[in-house]
């Protein structure tokens, strides 16, 4: 089944939250978490090394923030798509995420929801449909 799963890189500096996200996604059976980045620079590096299909990115990472890391990841040819999340209610964050090349945006509360796997499935399908040649 691992060959049919979506490869995800989780970019989250909080250990407990990262473990919760990983458990939730992997228990769904449709995802394989290929790595975890604790800051923006590591997110960019691991994205290039691990070649995930989807990057789940905290907007507030230490060092290089999630917006800057998303921009750097999306600048590469055949880049994965990025879904940014934050606890912020600021509309400007959504706009900045889109400008950086994020394919989707989630509120941080969605990360611990049993609906997270389905939300990512919808975002992934929509991204693939929009980027077919």
Task: Walk me through the structure.
The protein has helices at residues 15-28, 40-50, 66-74, 91-100, 116-130, and strands at residues 6-11, 31-37, 54-58, 81-86, 104-107. It is built from five helices and five strands; from the N terminus they run E-H-E-H-E-H-E-H-E-H. By secondary structure, the chain is of the alpha/beta class. Strand 3 (54-58), helix 3 (66-74) and strand 4 form a beta-alpha-beta unit. The protein is globular. 44% of the residues lie in helices and 21% in strands. Strands 2-1-3-4-5 form a five-stranded parallel beta sheet, with helices on both faces. The chain starts with 5 loop residues before the first strand and ends with a helix. It has a domain at 12-30 and 40-62. The mean pLDDT is 90.
What secondary-structure arrangement, pairings included, does this model have?
Layout: E1 6-11, H1 15-28, E2 31-37, H2 40-50, E3 54-58, H3 66-74, E4 81-86, H4 91-100, E5 104-107, H5 116-130
Parallel strand pairs: 1-2, 1-3, 3-4, 4-5
Helix pairs in contact: 2-3, 3-4
Low-confidence stretches: none
| Average pLDDT score | 90
Helix content percent band: 40-55%
| Cα-based radius of gyration, to the nearest Å | 13 Å
The tally of beta strands, per DSSP, is 5
End-to-end distance: 27 Å
Major sheet: 5 strands, parallel
**Annotation field: number of helices:** 5
H/E element string? Answer: EHEHEHEHEH
The structure class reads alpha/beta
Form type: globular
The proportion of strand residues reads 15-25%
Task: Please list the strands of the largest sheet in the order they lie side by side.
Answer: 2-1-3-4-5
């Amino acid at each position: 089944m691992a060959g049919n799963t979506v490869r995800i890189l989780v970019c989250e500096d909080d250990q407990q939250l990262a473990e919760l996200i990983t458990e939730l996604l992997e228990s769904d059976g449709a995802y394989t978490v290929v790595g975890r980045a604790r800051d923006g620079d590591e997110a960019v590096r691991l994205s290039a090394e691990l070649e995930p299909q989807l990057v789940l990115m905290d907007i507030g990472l230490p060092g290089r923030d999630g917006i800057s890391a998303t921009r750097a990841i999306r600048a590469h040819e055949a880049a994965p798509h990025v879904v940014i999340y934050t606890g912020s209610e600021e509309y400007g964050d959504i706009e900045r995420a889109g400008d950086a090349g994020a394919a989707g945006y989630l509120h941080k509360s969605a990360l611990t929801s049993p609906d997270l796997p389905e939300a990512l499935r919808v975002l992934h399908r929509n991204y693939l449909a929009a980027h077919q040649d």
